[in-house]
Amino acid sequence: MDIDPRTYNIDPAAIEAAITEQTKAILPVHLYGQPANMDPIMTLAEVHGLYVIEDAAQAIGAHYKGRRVGSIGHAGCLSFYPTKNLGAYGDGGMAVTSDAALAEKVDILRRQGSEKKYHAEVLGFNSRLDSLQAAILGVKLKYLDRWNEARRQVAQRYNELLADLPVVTPYELPDAYHVYHQYTIRAPQRDALAAHLKKRGIGTMILSDSFAPSEALCQSRLQGGQPAGERGGQPGGALVAYVPGADPSATARGNSGHSGVLQQMKADTFNIAREPVVLRGS
Ligand SMILES: Cc1ncc(COP(=O)(O)O)c(C=O)c1O
Questions:
Q1: What does the pLDDT look like over 14-36, one tens digit per residue?
Q2: Distance from the alpha carbon of residue 279 to the mean position of ligand 1, in angstroms
Q3: How many helices (H) and strands (E) does the chain have?
Q4: Ligand 1 neighbour 79 (Cβ under 6 A)
Q5: Ligand 1 touching residue 93 (CB < 6 A)
Q6: What's the sign of the alpha-carbon dihedral 75, 229, 4, 147?
């Protein structure tokens, strides 16, 4: 179903029409670090007797009306992939729930479906979190809120510096504490902008370039178009993302940090014919 074009998250108004007798759960993804609009989703789930499983892979530490993402629905999924806001030094993830029976099922599944050692009752997977990663994450977790706050400050700085440019900067849903896993903008001249920034040593990523419904795998399962979602994946209204650093001193460093880079970008006003300038000083 389609997204809310302001937040890129699931549009609660589009959910009801997509519910069928086979629907078991609603799976909101808190994309780029912004919580989905959970109140109407929870209401719909209650009315239709559905589970809500939050994909909080990109949004650990984010909150919605004071509640941490992952703890609002019946279960939540977290990713500790190294680039995530709380990243391990290898792969890792976590499922969270306050439903004891569900927790037990997940626990069995992650151990090859075995409740008792060497007796697999169901088909599961090998999905134990490595102890070394757990130890690293345990230390990093203490800093997560501070790092997320630093990301928000960097995002705020980007917003200020981009204010006069023809790009769509991130929209924050009221009551949502966005943790900016990605700082995502839409730009009419996406590719030219990405090339311009690359010349100046600023990495960006094109996200959702090939939008899933265009892929054969999903085609048969989706009815109708997803106009807002597709717009997100096409050059005319595409997404360019910068990943803001968690280091609060980046702002203070001025021209050697990303804020300095954007200051320069503003001064250039996309004059891509100009010679590249050195933006990362010593
Ligand atoms: C929104 C979202 N969901 C799920 C995942 C999968 O996480 P993992 O790679 O840890 O399984 C990712 C990882 O990129 C993600 O961004």
A1: 999 999 999 999 999 999 999 99
A2: 32
A3: 10, 12
A4: yes
A5: yes
A6: positive
Atom of ligand 1 nearest to the CA of 31: 1
Nearest residue (by CA) to ligand 1, atom 1, is 57
Distance 93 CA to ligand 1 centre (A): 9
- Pocket test of ligand 1: the residue of 69, 79, 84, 239 to mutate, having most ligand atoms within 8 Å of its CB, is 79
DSSP labels, 24-71: -EE--B-GGGPPP-HHHHHHHHHHHT-EEEEE-TT-TT-EETTEETTS
Relative to the CA of 81, which ligand 1 atom is closest? 10
Tens of pLDDT, residues 228-242: 655 554 443 444 444
Asked if pLDDT for residue 227 goes beyond 90, the answer is no
Q: Which amino acid is at 49?
A: G
Angle between helices 144-162 and 258-268 (to 10 degrees): 10
8 in the Ramachandran plot: left (φ > 0), alpha (ψ -120 to 50) or beta?
Answer: left
Helix (H) or strand (E) holding 95: strand 93-96
Helices (H), 49-200: 100-110, 131-141, 144-162, 190-199
Which strand (E) or helix (H) includes residue 238? strand 238-242
